[in-house]
Amino acid sequence: MGLAAGGFLRLFQTFLYALEFCCASIILGIYSYFLAFLSRRNLSISNQSKAVEGISGVAVLYLIFAVLLTCFLGGVSFFAFVAIVLDVLFVGGFIAIAVMTRNGANSCSGYVNTPLGNGPSNVGTPSLRLPCKLNTAAFAVSIIGA
């Protein structure tokens, strides 16, 4: 009975880490696009965008190892303690990402605030509607990740 329950818990924890990995990688991809776009056009990059990129990048690296370690070293006390500490830190990181991407909670029509600029959603190259929707996705996924 205990072995089956322990296996189920390990499998469930691996699932949660995999879900969080997907969330972090989506945010990393979106903000990599934003930073590449701004960099190619020699535009200034806000510290918030750099922070979102950094937090999500570190989360992706941690979660790759967390999924592997949970599968192979689950149940070892030292690794469990380290995982708890890092999990709490990354909950804070995902909350910080949600705060930094909170403009994504607004409507993507009319005047929008995006990492690529502010203005009417139907003006610009590219239109600011796409970056607004991507920022909304990053906001939603950061809440799921937290």
TrEMBL record:
<keyword id="KW-0812">Transmembrane</keyword>
<keyword id="KW-0472">Membrane</keyword>
<feature type="transmembrane region" description="Helical">
    <location>
        <begin position="51"/>
        <end position="70"/>
    </location>
</feature>
<keyword id="KW-1133">Transmembrane helix</keyword>
<feature type="transmembrane region" description="Helical">
    <location>
        <begin position="76"/>
        <end position="99"/>
    </location>
</feature>
<protein>
    <recommendedName>
        <fullName>MARVEL domain-containing protein</fullName>
    </recommendedName>
</protein>
<feature type="transmembrane region" description="Helical">
    <location>
        <begin position="15"/>
        <end position="39"/>
    </location>
</feature>
